[in-house]
Amino acid sequence: MSTYPVIILVEPQLGQNIGAVARIMLNLGYHELRIVNPRDGWPNPDALINASGADQVLENAKIYPILEESIADLQLVYATTPRNHDMIKSIERPESAAQRLAPLIKEGTRVGLLFGCERCGLNNDDVALCEGIITISTNPEFSSLNLSHAVSVVIYAFRMALENPLPSHFRTGKTKIATQKDLLSFYAHLEASLDQSGFLRHEKKRPTMIRNIRNIFNRMNLTQQEIQTLRGIIRSLEEGSSK
């Protein structure tokens, strides 16, 4: 298993860009590429051409129909986007995020870095599933970056940080940081309970309310034990309301 973050491309459009991403990944020692719902299907011959020899990254790339499946086994996921999406999220430069996360990655925490499609980037639902946002500082008068350029800036920062990580101060004791699968299962349980109680009864407001609720918990770096405790609380409330 790689000691580098997993690179996740969400609905990329051009095979050429996917190939260029694979090329810079292998240049910097990254091997795990995941692709969510590529527009032109997979495999894509244009990707292979632009990879310029980084065939192994493309051959081992995993394809997923939806984002949730692509991050299920990961513990921390960060969105790379120039916008804050009007959400309460930590926003960091690649260098500071890399320095903060490098000790956790060294200890075995599985981290994913999300990059959106070329046309519109990541949407609100994508970002709601992430612990924070990574933003690249660019010229405000010309801030458009090619997908592979954005990936290269971010993963270079992580490579440098992983070569000389700062001491970690986040300890989980005998438990571990919850995986995204744990979190998604918790969200499904919580949202079903809130539907039953009537809290999410306003259909027009429901998507925004769900995003806000997920944002609250995603900022907490919840452990597996904490997820179990929260689900126990929900079950207790459900049982109490049924008496």
TrEMBL record:
Keywords assigned: Cytoplasm, Methyltransferase, S-adenosyl-L-methionine, Transferase, tRNA processing
Keyword set includes S-adenosyl-L-methionine: yes
Subcellular location: Cytoplasm
Listed EC numbers: 2.1.1.200
Function: Catalyzes the formation of 2'O-methylated cytidine (Cm32) or 2'O-methylated uridine (Um32) at position 32 in tRNA.
Family membership: Belongs to the class IV-like SAM-binding methyltransferase superfamily. RNA methyltransferase TrmH family.
Quaternary organization: Homodimer.
Protein name: tRNA (cytidine/uridine-2'-O-)-methyltransferase TrmJ
